[in-house]
Specification:
Helix content is 40%, strand content 15%. It has ten helices and eleven strands. The radius of gyration is 20 Å and the shape is globular.
Length: 302
């Protein structure tokens, strides 16, 4: 897809995540069905500490998505005052279980805990959201074996679904976190894009962004990418989830600017965020298939 020419009055293409998620779910369901027929029940272990509203909301959506594609969810719910050792013991228990193929540990953990150390207890083959150093190293090295962060991979899934060819394109990722920004840049590099990582302290960010073919906004700040940052006909993937002064969800990109200047854009809400749980489910199915192929003692379906 090329840039939309200046002066044309056609509206920007709105790339919603719903269609992408539906397509991915169908593929995941087919793989899960194949595994079940082979006697393997793909299962995810969800570890949650406390009752945070955001965690409960995400968990509800995750359970619904997993059930839709045939994945079993096993929950390990711990009180807010659980000791660090108690949490480590549960992580090790879930990690060692041959009946559980992937792990999702809700974060942030309670203050005072060694979150980084606890995350390293998870085996890379069960690390569905790239929280271990080993998984992240695999993403940066471009090697198979672990999984990329679900949100970063959702960006690529959207581009692929809508037929965007990254080869040779100038891509700017605004954001440098190890959760989204940096891994997204590595995934785009693997798709043969020429990638620049920028951030809120980048000198003359608008000038840099105007020259980009593809912008991935993942700074985590509303209005980071404004009208002065945009050229005509660019592709904008907005990863930001913010709450504006009116209490409404908004991304990192100015909505009016993207609708009038972009060639294509992802909305917030309804864009990248709508794909992330589908990516997680796909990772789980892939993990179950890989572990069963390695000859582990998987639990047979009853």
């Amino acid at each position: 897809m090329g840039r939309r020419a200046a002066g044309k009055e056609d509206m920007a293409q709105k790339w919603t995540g719903k269609e992408v998620a539906q397509d991915l779910d169908q593929k995941t369901a087919a793989e899960v069905s194949r595994l079940i027929e082979a006697g393997i029940q793909p299962t995810i272990g969800v570890i949650r500490v406390g009752e945070k509203a955001a965690d409960l909301s995400y968990e509800k959506g995750l359970v619904k998505r997993c059930e839709k594609v045939g994945i079993r969810v096993e929950k390990f719910l711990l009180p807010e005052d659980v000791s660090e050792q108690g949490l480590r013991d549960v992580v090790r228990e879930v990690n060692a279980s041959p009946q559980i193929h992937g792990i999702l540990l809700f974060r942030p953990l309670p203050k005072g805990m060694d979150e980084h150390g606890i995350l390293q207890e998870i085996a890379p083959e069960k690390d569905l959201d790239c929280v271990t150093d080993a998984s992240l190293a695999g993403v940066f090295a471009g090697k198979a074996g672990g999984f990329a962060p679900c949100t970063a991979e959702a960006v690529i899934r959207i581009l692929d679904y809508y037929g965007y060819d990254c080869t040779g394109k100038r891509a700017v990722v605004v954001g440098r976190s190890t959760v989204i920004g940096k891994p997204a840049a590595m995934l785009l590099l693997a798709k043969n894009a020429t990638v620049t990582i920028a951030h809120t302290r980048t000198r003359d960010l608008p000038a840099l962004l105007r020259e980009a073919d593809l912008i991935v906004a993942a700074a985590g700040h509303p209005h980071t990418v404004t009208r002065e940052c945009l050229g005509m006909g660019q592709t904008l993937v907005d990863v930001g989830i913010n709450v504006d002064e009116n209490g409404k969800l908004t991304g990192d990109v100015d909505r009016e600017a993207e609708e009038t200047l972009a060639g294509a854009y992802t909305p917030v809400p309804g864009g990248v965020g709508a794909v992330t749980t589908s990516v997680l489910a796909a990772h789980l199915a892939e993990a179950a298939a890989a572990q069963s192929a390695q000859g582990g003692d998987q639990k047979k379906c009853q």
